[in-house]
Amino acid sequence: MAPQGVALDAVLAALRDLTGYSQDRTASLRSALSLSPAGPEGARRLAGRQAAWRRVLQDMPVDERSFDTRFGLGSRTAVIARLTAWCAGYREQGEALRQDCADVFGFTGLFLLTLIGLAESEAQRSRLPAADPAGGADASALTHDCPAVCGVLAADEEVGRAVSAVYSPEPAAGRRPAPESEQAVQEWRAMAPNLRFHRHGSTSVILRGSTTGAVHGARPDFALKLVLYPFTRIGTLAKATREYARTYGSAAQGLRHLVRVWASFDTWIMMEFIEGSTLAETVRAEAAGRPAGELRLSLDRLREQGSKLFDALAELQQVAADNPLHGGLGGVHADLSPSNIIVSAADGTFRLVDLGRNYLYTHTITGATGVASSYIAPEVRSGDGHILRADLYSLGRLLMLFGTGVESTDRVVPDVFYMRAPQLARFLEDLVDAVPERRLLIFSDPVQREFSYARLKEGFLAELELVRAAERDSGELRVEAGWRALRELARPLAGDPGREWRLWRGRRRGGTPSATGSRPPLATWLLGWSLLSALVWALTNFAVLTWLFRDLNLSWDNRLIELVQHLGGNREGLPVVDSWRHSDYTVPDWRANLPARMVGLSYAIAAPKYYQMLFSGLTPLAIGRRAGSLSRLALATETIMRIMAVVPCGLVLAITLVEPRWWPVNSAIGQILTWLANVLTLAYVRAVIARSRRLGLTTVPEDDSKITGLAAFTQWSPTSMFYAVAVLTVGTLLYLGLLHDVYVYALAVTSTNLILFYVIKCGLGGPLVRVAIVRACLTAERIGRLGGR
Question: What is the pTM of this model?
Answer without folding.
Answer: 0.87
